[in-house]
Amino acid sequence: MTRTRTARIRLGAAVTAVLAVTTVTAVTVTPSFAAAPTAVTPAAAAQSAEQDVVPFPVDASVLSAGPTGFLSGQGGTPITYRWMRYSDGATTVLPGGSYGGSRRTDVVRGTDGSGVFKLYDMATGADPLEIDIRPLGEGYTVVGSAGTRLVAKKANATGGSDLHVIGKQQGDLVDDTVTGLPADAAITVINLESPDSAVVLYAGTVDGTKQSRAAVVDIATHAVVEKYETPDVPLGGTALSATHIAWVEKPTNSTVKVAVARRDTGETVRHDLGITNAVGIQLVGGWLTYRQFASDPASLPNSRYALRAFSLTTGETVDLLDHTLTSTPGPDGTQMARGGTIEHGEGLYRIAPGADGARPTVTLVASTGQSTTLEFVKHDVPETIDFDRVTTPVPLTWTLNRPAMEVHVRLEHPATGKSWSPEVSSSGDGRYGFKWDGAFVTSNPGIPAEYRAPAPNGDYTWRFTAQPIGGIGPAVEKTGTFKVVRKVVPHDFDDNGTPDLLVRDSTGLKLYNTSSPLGAWTHDFPTWLGTGGWNAYDRLVSPGNVAGSPQSDIVARDKTGVLWLHQGTGLALAPRVKIGGGWGIYKQITGGSDLNGDGRPDLLATDTSGVLWLYKGTGDAVKPFAPRVKVGGGWGIYNQITATADIGGGPAGDLVARDASGVLWLYLGKGDGTFAARTRIGAGWNTYYGLAGFGDVDRDGHPDLLANNHYGNTYVYKGTGDWRAPFGTRQAIYSYDYFGSDLTIF
């Protein structure tokens, strides 16, 4: 049968009770009962100065703690609840349902949401005490347990709420209504401090006057035994010890205050914490601990959420933990907090009263094996990136032990001094990186504009830096190296796998990377290849690699008819070397096509009588060209000849020639140093100041043609590989690319 005390209740239909636990949201989980203790597989346990520690599940919260062990809830669907002993780490995974603890005891409360509660004494392993509240009728909301009793709230007929203590006595269900609360009490907080006491915050009418109070409830007598006046402001958490009671006051547009009252005299002192966030408090000996609640667990560790304490007698303030996630009252006036310190790392800490009012002691009792400080775990940066072979973009990633507040990556090419700090993104779980297409990005804030150019080949260094969230511990810095490789291509003077634009003006010779993609924006800052002396030349040709090294070279004729070789190094130009004299007899000089199939580019020149001469490449830097061979006459009708490499899909390099009327003609190379009969390409080409073979700017396997007009605009005609229509529609190298008229582009 059912007995009642203080208030009779009527048996009614069974209802589902909602379990509201202040330390964790109730979640129903799939049954998976473990009859015997089940071993947890945690990270390696840390060692405190005071004692050995047991494992603490990673990503778990502490829900309650008693004399022999603690209850944790590990995030997931479903939540995994575990009870673990301090002494040896023996672990019991609790069966399906939702769980909370009875504070400061080894009792764990479980329910499946049906209104039936089971109270497990984890210290003894005895059969659970089952309390079925369904016979009590509707309207009960269980807010927690005090030892082996349930505490519930239920609306009454006056519009207020009653507090009920529900238990078993000699097998009978007992429902005691707490006395001493106003009938119209609007209860805002119920804090079950221990198996013996609870603190209730409420507002209600007494003798016709509305009152706001903090009340201490004795669980055994189910009666209010103490009351304290509270202001008419929003109130937060509470704390209770043998000597003091405390509660949090949150006035509108003001900082948080903690009111601490002596239980013997009622004297109340308010302490301004100087913060506006919600806080959790607890009394530990003669000290009050407090911590801010983190709205986003991913933002932890963070010194903003440190566990701090101040003395109720001296006002001294100390830091106990560098950060906290969750906490609960522990046995013998202690506090158990899940958090971390720089010294001992992440885990469960016991905060115990110090001797004779000294500051509380802090002891690590269970460890996740994780560091509280930010640490570098690994990098995934290839030793070599071959951009001719890999699929771009290439992911480069760096992994930390947890998310960081701020992360930077800097790539540097020591040979040129070029560097770039790409935008880094997070993929979760402490992983940071970016996907690299092989380009370096520079900017001009004055325009503003961004420029993308292929990064040079060669050795690179990377530097990874990360700032910890909340300033806990030092910043992380790691460095490493890798290499970028690509095959050498014609007209590439800075060794980045793409043709370059060479511009000679009154100040010297400059290199411009083509925009990526073509026509994207104005040109990037140039690289100087030389300053003085370049205006001594009346002919400049980039015939490709004629000197035997992989990089492209420049052949230049001065005004006295001497021919000079400027050998490319991949980073600059070597000092010039005299090739020979007597070249003043030629009106046109061009190079860049392999006309005889030996794999080396050749030089072509037309003399004043219109004869075309071939200088075969030797690959020797001292004598890069063999003696001339006559190709044929009648070439005087052309004011521009340009070697283009193989644009027609034939066996060898080709030549285009422009006549005085602006018609462009194609001469397909036969592979023996001679050409097939000319083919008309089109008219109107006299709009251009100069034409030059440009290599393969779009990496489609077909060489392209460079053209610049008298206004300094520069275009690319992409090769098609079809001799009948060897070039596509012209395309500007940059969207805005005016270089000026008094210059040479090749």
What would you say about this model in short?
The protein has 746 residues and is an all-beta fold.
Describe the structure.
The protein is an all-beta fold and 746 residues long. It is 0% helix and 48% strand. It has no helices and 61 strands. The strands form 15 sheets. Strands 1-14-13-12-11 form a 5-stranded mixed beta sheet, with no helix packed on it. A 5-stranded mixed beta sheet has the order 2-30-29-28-27, with no helix packed on it. Strand 28 (335-341) and strand 29 (345-352) form a beta hairpin. It is rod-shaped and about 125 Å long. The N and C termini lie far apart (104 Å). Residues 1-50 have low confidence and may be disordered.
Give a count of the beta strands, DSSP E runs of length 2 or more: 61
| Main β sheet profile | 5 strands, mixed
Strand content: over 45%
Strand order of the largest sheet: 1-14-13-12-11
Low-confidence stretches: 1-50
Task: Figure out the total of helices.
Answer: 0
Termini separation comes to 104 Å
Structural class: mainly beta
Radius of gyration: 42 Å
Overall shape: it is rod-shaped
| Average predicted local confidence, pLDDT | 89
Helix content range of the residues, please?
Answer: under 10%
List keywords for this structure.
746 residues; mainly beta; five-stranded mixed sheet; 0% helix; rod-shaped
Give the secondary structure arrangement, pairings included:
Layout lengths: L2 E3 L48 E2 L4 E6 L3 E6 L5 E6 L5 E3 L4 E4 L5 E5 L4 E6 L7 E4 L8 E6 L2 E7 L5 E9 L2 E6 L8 E7 L4 E10 L2 E10 L4 E7 L5 E6 L3 E6 L7 E6 L5 E5 L6 E6 L2 E6 L14 E5 L5 E5 L1 E7 L5 E7 L3 E8 L8 E7 L8 E5 L3 E3 L7 E7 L5 E8 L4 E3 L4 E4 L2 E6 L2 E6 L4 E6 L3 E10 L8 E10 L14 E6 L2 E6 L13 E4 L6 E8 L8 E6 L4 E4 L10 E4 L5 E8 L8 E6 L4 E4 L13 E4 L5 E8 L8 E6 L4 E4 L11 E4 L5 E6 L11 E5 L4 E6 L7 E6 L11 E2 L1
Parallel strand pairs: 1-14, 2-30, 32-41
Antiparallel strand pairs: 3-4, 4-5, 5-6, 7-8, 8-9, 9-10, 11-12, 12-13, 13-14, 15-16, 16-17, 17-18, 19-20, 20-21, 21-22, 23-24, 24-25, 25-26, 27-28, 28-29, 29-30, 31-33, 33-37, 34-35, 34-40, 36-37, 38-39, 40-41, 42-43, 42-61, 43-44, 45-46, 46-47, 47-48, 49-50, 50-51, 51-52, 53-54, 54-55, 55-56, ...
